[in-house]
Amino acid sequence: xxxxxxxxxxxxxxxxxxxxxxxxxxxxxxxxxxxxxxxxxxxxxxxxxxxxxxxxxxxxxxxxxxxxxxxxxxxxxxxxxxxxxxxxxxxxxxxxxxxxxxxxxxxxxxxxxxxxxxxxxxxxxxxxxxxxxxxxxxxxxxxxxxxxxxxxxxxxxxxxxxxxxxxxxxxxxxxxxxxxxxxxxxxxxxxxxxxxxxxxxxxxxxxxxxxxxxxxxxxxxxxxxxxxxxxxxxxxxxxxxxxxxxxxxxxxxxxxxxxxxxxxxxxxxxxxxxxxxxxxxxxxxxxxxxxxxxxxxxxxxxxxxxxxxxxxxxxxxxxxxxxxxxxxxxxxx
Length: 333
Hints:
Blueprint: H1 13-27, E1 47-54, E2 60-61, E3 64-65, H2 66-79, E4 83-95, H3 100-117, E5 120-129, E6 137-147, E7 162-166, H4 172-182, H5 198-207, E8 213-215, H6 221-233, E9 236-240, H7 248-257, E10 271-275, H8 279-287, E11 296-302, E12 309-312, E13 318-321
Helix pairs in contact: 1-3, 2-3, 5-8
């Protein structure tokens, strides 16, 4: 079988062979192998649950693919609630005629990403639609994790006087997708930052504690995500423009294309908001991990301009960073 056929979505013998020969080989574990209508798992205490769908185009890009991205995106959403990601479900919508080699590459990547993230895929579903009814492959994942702290980090918990940190450079994923899709090249290669942040977050919570907010600035980027937090918490946020880390290749590419890296998606970075007194300790924990090596303190939470984000320029002036209006780059995740 070199291409996906409509028969593989029938629910009959062709479907069973397809699932057994491909998905179980890369994603299989003792829970999934039971083949019941739902998985039974054991958890105690508070649980974090998140679901997301992935339609990224192209499905392969520098630094990742739709399979690893589907794991990382949902694992990170669970981790941002101060939880240890444990289980995933996945649903695949496949276009008839999708090359089987491409599908296997995606599923293998997904399995490897899940193992690295310490999660198990415990339930799944596959549908095949006629050629032209979808674009290659869409994936939905739902993540479940054990909440480790009480109270859990939340966008409602930012307080005046808190420090605002990021774990690394902004805009890498968004520009990597755009440049690959458009066939653009830059002097220095741009790669997606797609990565699972559960381990990094767990280290931060264990070593520092009292983290008020954790968020991954995906669609809409840093500026939009911070606007959401400012609105949820009823506070203002001020950022120091020069303190925000941006990879030189991303900055150069954005300058050429007329884009702002503060509005581009990230898939392996987090925002951390916590008391100013703990900022340096948090920075040290982040920088000690390869996924947080570029971490920086970029601003603070203030009482002024509630619900808004202001950027302090190198000359000392201020300008408001609004929320992204509309879709800047469709199908980036």
